[in-house]
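Record type: monomer structure entry
Structure origin: computed from sequence
Chain ID: A
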Amino acid sequence: MQLGFVGLGKMGLNMVTRLSRGGHAVVAFDRSPEAVERAVAAGATGVGSLEALVAGLAAPRAVWVMVPAGAPTAETVAALGRLLSRGDTIIDGGNTHFHDDVARAGQLAGSGIHYVDAGTSGGVWGLTEGYCLMVGGAEEVCRALEPVFLTLAPPNGYLRVGGHGAGHYVKMVHNGIEYGLMQAYAEGFELLHASDYKPDLAKVASLWMQGSVVRSWLLELTARALADDAELSTLKPWVEDSGEGRWTLQEGIEKRVPLPALTASLFTRFRSRIENSYAERLLAAMRNQFGGHAVKSTGTGGHGR
């Protein structure tokens, strides 16, 4: 199948490579000429603009957008909407908010352009392992794109989960669950690290992959990371979030669904970015005030930042 592809970062380039290896004719564009060159080396046809990408596709066209969420995605979809024709399809594989999917699908429908949201999980390992695809959109439009989805996904790794926005909604919840899993593993391994027994953490992680009820791909990746550096000595305790955890929590509030594990894991990420926390300094000050408990001074005469 012929497919246009916009966005050739780490994930996008691997997806183009997997599609090319699967026999699809991919026309690829990125603002970086070097990224386009890498896509060409992987088997795609490279172009230098969205206009050239659209011109290089036969109608009805399908274009996959894999750029950062937010303004880059909105601007790319809008630009493609002006270039494509009735019967063409835009597939958004990024981390778009599901409400935005519904709005964009409605706007594009006025020009007869189809819209599909494809929640995509697999990260940098997707090239070899395949990508789990959670797809939303009109059933007949998604069915026409199945050759692409089935090539990108591992066996049983693709599912149309509903109408416009459903794919990114399911991916949003998927990421919320991921936050909780990661936090649980992090806390458990911190306790093991602090224990008097000092077990080999990489070996424990590998052990738990063998029949344990807590085995998962995340645990396998944890084992790899610990095997490389058990003390994680090259890393700073700074954990970013993509925004999907926040959206999931907001949806839980809207639907009155309690999400305590996600809440704790998201707030822990926020905490990881605060050096010399004001709240924790205030806790020390309060304990000193009511109980005379010892405090540690920075020795700077200030707050030590």
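Annotation 1: Residues 158 and 286 are 54 Å apart (CA to CA).
Annotation 2: The mean pLDDT is 95.
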